[in-house]
Protein backbone atom coordinates (compact mmCIF):
# COMPACT_ATOMS: atom_id res chain seq x y z
CA UNK A 1 0.00 0.00 0.00
CA UNK A 2 1.27 3.49 -0.89
CA UNK A 3 2.01 5.77 2.12
CA UNK A 4 -0.44 8.64 2.25
CA UNK A 5 1.01 12.14 2.08
CA UNK A 6 -0.01 14.60 4.73
CA UNK A 7 -1.97 17.43 3.23
CA UNK A 8 0.58 20.21 3.96
CA UNK A 9 3.49 18.09 2.63
CA UNK A 10 1.62 17.61 -0.58
CA UNK A 11 1.00 21.36 -0.91
CA UNK A 12 4.68 22.08 -0.29
CA UNK A 13 5.79 19.58 -2.97
CA UNK A 14 3.31 20.89 -5.45
CA UNK A 15 4.51 24.47 -5.07
CA UNK A 16 8.13 23.31 -5.04
CA UNK A 17 8.80 24.90 -1.65
CA UNK A 18 9.15 21.88 0.61
CA UNK A 19 11.54 19.57 -1.23
CA UNK A 20 15.03 20.39 -2.43
CA UNK A 21 15.86 19.60 -6.06
CA UNK A 22 17.75 16.30 -6.15
CA UNK A 23 21.32 16.78 -7.47
CA UNK A 24 22.15 15.02 -10.73
CA UNK A 25 23.74 11.58 -10.21
CA UNK A 26 27.56 11.58 -10.15
CA UNK A 27 28.89 10.94 -13.61
CA UNK A 28 32.64 10.56 -13.82
CA UNK A 29 32.81 10.82 -17.60
CA UNK A 30 30.49 13.80 -17.97
CA UNK A 31 30.42 16.32 -20.85
CA UNK A 32 33.33 18.36 -19.38
CA UNK A 33 35.47 15.24 -18.98
CA UNK A 34 34.84 14.28 -22.62
CA UNK A 35 35.48 17.83 -23.81
CA UNK A 36 38.78 17.97 -21.89
CA UNK A 37 39.94 14.76 -23.60
CA UNK A 38 38.97 16.09 -27.01
CA UNK A 39 40.68 19.45 -26.45
CA UNK A 40 43.84 17.87 -24.95
CA UNK A 41 43.41 19.34 -21.47
CA UNK A 42 44.72 17.24 -18.61
CA UNK A 43 41.65 17.77 -16.40
CA UNK A 44 38.00 18.80 -16.69
CA UNK A 45 38.64 21.49 -14.05
CA UNK A 46 40.08 23.71 -16.78
CA UNK A 47 36.52 24.68 -17.74
CA UNK A 48 36.00 26.21 -14.30
CA UNK A 49 38.97 28.54 -14.89
CA UNK A 50 37.75 29.29 -18.42
CA UNK A 51 34.36 30.36 -17.04
CA UNK A 52 36.06 32.48 -14.36
CA UNK A 53 38.20 34.12 -17.05
CA UNK A 54 35.19 34.77 -19.31
CA UNK A 55 33.41 36.54 -16.45
CA UNK A 56 36.25 38.37 -14.63
CA UNK A 57 39.06 38.67 -17.27
CA UNK A 58 41.79 38.21 -14.67
CA UNK A 59 44.52 36.68 -16.86
CA UNK A 60 46.25 39.04 -19.31
CA UNK A 61 49.17 38.79 -21.74
CA UNK A 62 52.66 39.25 -20.19
CA UNK A 63 51.42 38.58 -16.65
CA UNK A 64 53.32 36.80 -13.89
CA UNK A 65 50.98 34.13 -12.56
CA UNK A 66 51.27 31.59 -9.73
CA UNK A 67 49.05 28.49 -9.77
CA UNK A 68 48.79 26.71 -6.39
CA UNK A 69 47.66 23.08 -6.33
CA UNK A 70 48.44 22.98 -10.02
CA UNK A 71 48.73 19.25 -10.83
CA UNK A 72 47.84 17.84 -13.34
CA UNK A 73 48.37 21.24 -14.94
CA UNK A 74 45.20 21.92 -16.93
CA UNK A 75 44.93 25.45 -15.51
CA UNK A 76 48.58 25.98 -16.48
CA UNK A 77 47.92 24.68 -20.00
CA UNK A 78 45.21 27.31 -20.40
CA UNK A 79 46.99 30.17 -18.59
CA UNK A 80 50.26 29.86 -20.50
CA UNK A 81 48.45 30.48 -23.80
CA UNK A 82 47.08 33.80 -22.55
CA UNK A 83 50.22 35.14 -20.85
CA UNK A 84 52.41 34.19 -23.85
CA UNK A 85 56.16 33.92 -23.93
CA UNK A 86 56.71 37.26 -22.16
CA UNK A 87 54.62 36.15 -19.20
CA UNK A 88 55.81 33.90 -16.37
CA UNK A 89 53.97 31.00 -14.82
CA UNK A 90 54.87 29.14 -11.65
CA UNK A 91 52.99 25.97 -10.63
CA UNK A 92 53.14 24.68 -7.05
CA UNK A 93 51.88 21.29 -5.89
CA UNK A 94 52.52 18.91 -3.04
CA UNK A 95 52.72 16.06 -5.57
CA UNK A 96 55.80 15.13 -7.52
CA UNK A 97 55.58 17.18 -10.64
CA UNK A 98 56.56 17.32 -14.30
CA UNK A 99 59.10 19.91 -15.37
CA UNK A 100 58.34 22.26 -18.22
CA UNK A 101 60.97 22.88 -20.86
CA UNK A 102 60.00 26.54 -21.51
CA UNK A 103 62.15 28.97 -19.48
CA UNK A 104 59.12 31.12 -18.56
CA UNK A 105 57.29 28.20 -16.91
CA UNK A 106 58.43 26.54 -13.72
CA UNK A 107 57.04 24.05 -11.23
CA UNK A 108 57.86 23.54 -7.56
CA UNK A 109 57.02 20.58 -5.35
CA UNK A 110 55.93 22.12 -2.06
CA UNK A 111 53.25 21.88 0.61
CA UNK A 112 51.53 25.25 0.70
CA UNK A 113 51.62 25.12 4.52
CA UNK A 114 55.42 25.54 4.12
CA UNK A 115 55.16 28.33 1.57
CA UNK A 116 57.90 30.47 3.10
CA UNK A 117 60.38 27.84 1.81
CA UNK A 118 59.72 28.93 -1.79
CA UNK A 119 60.89 32.56 -1.43
CA UNK A 120 64.33 31.75 -2.86
CA UNK A 121 62.87 29.92 -5.86
CA UNK A 122 60.39 32.73 -6.56
CA UNK A 123 63.25 35.26 -6.40
CA UNK A 124 65.28 33.20 -8.88
CA UNK A 125 62.30 32.91 -11.21
CA UNK A 126 60.86 36.46 -11.09
CA UNK A 127 63.85 38.45 -9.89
CA UNK A 128 64.75 39.51 -6.37
CA UNK A 129 61.73 40.67 -4.31
CA UNK A 130 59.44 40.65 -7.36
CA UNK A 131 55.92 39.34 -6.95
CA UNK A 132 53.00 37.95 -8.99
CA UNK A 133 50.17 39.81 -10.77
CA UNK A 134 47.76 36.96 -10.17
CA UNK A 135 47.59 33.95 -7.83
CA UNK A 136 45.11 31.18 -8.62
CA UNK A 137 44.39 28.14 -6.49
CA UNK A 138 42.30 25.08 -7.21
CA UNK A 139 43.44 23.29 -4.04
CA UNK A 140 41.03 21.06 -2.23
CA UNK A 141 41.79 19.06 0.93
CA UNK A 142 41.46 15.27 0.89
CA UNK A 143 37.78 14.66 1.48
CA UNK A 144 36.41 12.50 4.28
CA UNK A 145 32.75 12.80 3.16
CA UNK A 146 32.05 14.51 6.52
CA UNK A 147 30.85 17.90 5.34
CA UNK A 148 31.80 19.72 8.57
CA UNK A 149 35.37 18.33 8.53
CA UNK A 150 35.94 18.87 4.81
CA UNK A 151 34.69 22.44 4.79
CA UNK A 152 36.87 23.37 7.76
CA UNK A 153 39.94 21.77 6.15
CA UNK A 154 39.18 23.85 3.04
CA UNK A 155 38.87 27.03 5.14
CA UNK A 156 42.24 26.34 6.83
CA UNK A 157 43.91 25.63 3.49
CA UNK A 158 42.56 28.82 1.98
CA UNK A 159 43.60 30.97 4.95
CA UNK A 160 47.13 29.75 4.18
CA UNK A 161 46.65 30.75 0.53
CA UNK A 162 45.55 34.26 1.57
CA UNK A 163 48.73 34.46 3.67
CA UNK A 164 50.74 33.25 0.67
CA UNK A 165 49.13 36.00 -1.44
CA UNK A 166 49.89 38.58 1.24
CA UNK A 167 53.56 37.77 0.71
CA UNK A 168 53.78 36.90 -2.99
CA UNK A 169 51.08 38.98 -4.75
CA UNK A 170 51.63 42.58 -5.84
CA UNK A 171 49.41 45.22 -4.21
CA UNK A 172 46.40 46.09 -6.37
CA UNK A 173 46.22 42.60 -7.92
CA UNK A 174 43.99 39.55 -7.61
CA UNK A 175 43.59 36.08 -6.11
CA UNK A 176 41.28 33.18 -7.08
CA UNK A 177 40.55 30.32 -4.66
CA UNK A 178 38.34 27.27 -4.46
CA UNK A 179 36.41 26.86 -1.21
CA UNK A 180 34.01 24.29 0.20
CA UNK A 181 31.57 26.88 1.40
CA UNK A 182 29.54 26.11 4.50
CA UNK A 183 29.10 27.39 8.03
CA UNK A 184 32.75 28.34 8.84
CA UNK A 185 33.23 30.42 5.69
CA UNK A 186 33.27 33.63 7.79
CA UNK A 187 36.64 32.51 9.28
CA UNK A 188 38.07 32.74 5.77
CA UNK A 189 36.22 35.86 4.62
CA UNK A 190 37.65 37.63 7.70
CA UNK A 191 41.17 37.07 6.29
CA UNK A 192 40.19 37.94 2.73
CA UNK A 193 38.70 41.27 3.84
CA UNK A 194 41.88 42.11 5.74
CA UNK A 195 43.90 41.86 2.54
CA UNK A 196 41.57 42.65 -0.37
CA UNK A 197 39.22 45.48 -1.23
CA UNK A 198 36.61 43.36 -3.09
CA UNK A 199 35.41 39.78 -2.80
CA UNK A 200 33.14 37.93 -5.25
CA UNK A 201 31.73 34.44 -5.18
CA UNK A 202 31.19 32.42 -8.35
CA UNK A 203 30.00 28.90 -9.05
CA UNK A 204 31.00 27.87 -12.59
CA UNK A 205 28.66 25.53 -14.47
CA UNK A 206 31.51 23.01 -14.65
CA UNK A 207 31.31 22.51 -10.86
CA UNK A 208 29.45 19.27 -10.28
CA UNK A 209 25.84 19.68 -9.28
CA UNK A 210 26.25 17.97 -5.90
CA UNK A 211 29.45 19.80 -4.92
CA UNK A 212 29.46 22.60 -2.36
CA UNK A 213 32.59 24.16 -3.84
CA UNK A 214 32.59 27.77 -4.99
CA UNK A 215 35.33 30.04 -6.31
CA UNK A 216 36.24 33.22 -4.49
CA UNK A 217 37.66 36.06 -6.52
CA UNK A 218 39.47 38.46 -4.21
CA UNK A 219 40.34 41.67 -6.06
CA UNK A 220 42.59 44.65 -5.38
CA UNK A 221 45.01 43.57 -2.71
CA UNK A 222 45.65 46.34 -0.19
CA UNK A 223 49.16 47.85 0.05
CA UNK A 224 49.15 47.05 3.72
CA UNK A 225 46.84 44.61 5.45
CA UNK A 226 44.08 45.98 7.67
C1 LIG B 1 41.81 19.68 -7.96
S1 LIG B 1 43.51 19.46 -8.08
C2 LIG B 1 43.99 20.81 -9.10
C3 LIG B 1 43.69 20.64 -10.57
C4 LIG B 1 44.38 21.67 -11.42
N1 LIG B 1 43.81 23.00 -11.23
C5 LIG B 1 44.24 21.34 -12.87
O1 LIG B 1 43.46 21.99 -13.52
O2 LIG B 1 44.92 20.47 -13.37
C6 LIG B 1 44.09 19.99 -6.50
C7 LIG B 1 45.58 19.86 -6.29
O3 LIG B 1 45.92 20.45 -5.03
C8 LIG B 1 47.07 19.79 -4.55
N2 LIG B 1 47.22 20.04 -3.11
C9 LIG B 1 46.42 19.63 -2.09
N3 LIG B 1 46.90 20.04 -0.91
C10 LIG B 1 48.03 20.75 -1.17
C11 LIG B 1 48.98 21.44 -0.35
N4 LIG B 1 48.86 21.46 0.98
N5 LIG B 1 50.02 22.07 -0.96
C12 LIG B 1 50.16 22.04 -2.31
N6 LIG B 1 49.29 21.39 -3.14
C13 LIG B 1 48.24 20.76 -2.59
C14 LIG B 1 46.78 18.32 -4.85
O4 LIG B 1 47.99 17.56 -4.88
C15 LIG B 1 46.09 18.42 -6.22
O5 LIG B 1 47.00 18.18 -7.27
Write out the distinct hetero groups bound to the structure.
S-adenosylmethionine
- Could you list the spans in which at least 5 consecutive residues all have pLDDT below 50? 1-16
Radius of gyration: 20 Å
Largest sheet: 7 strands, mixed
Tally of structural domains: 1
Average pLDDT metric: 87
* First-last Cα distance: 64 Å
Give the CATH level 1 class.
Alpha Beta
Briefly note the CATH topology name: Rossmann fold
Beta-strand percentage?
15-25%
What is the CATH superfamily classification? Vaccinia Virus protein VP39
Characterize the overall form.
Answer: globular
Going by helix content, strand content and strand pairing, the class is alpha/beta
What's the count of strands? 7
What's the arrangement of strands in the largest beta sheet?
A: 3-2-1-4-5-7-6
Which architecture per CATH?
Answer: 3-Layer(aba) Sandwich
Number of helices: 7
Percent helix, as a range, is: 25-40%
Along the chain, the helix and strand elements come as HHHEHEEHEHEHEE
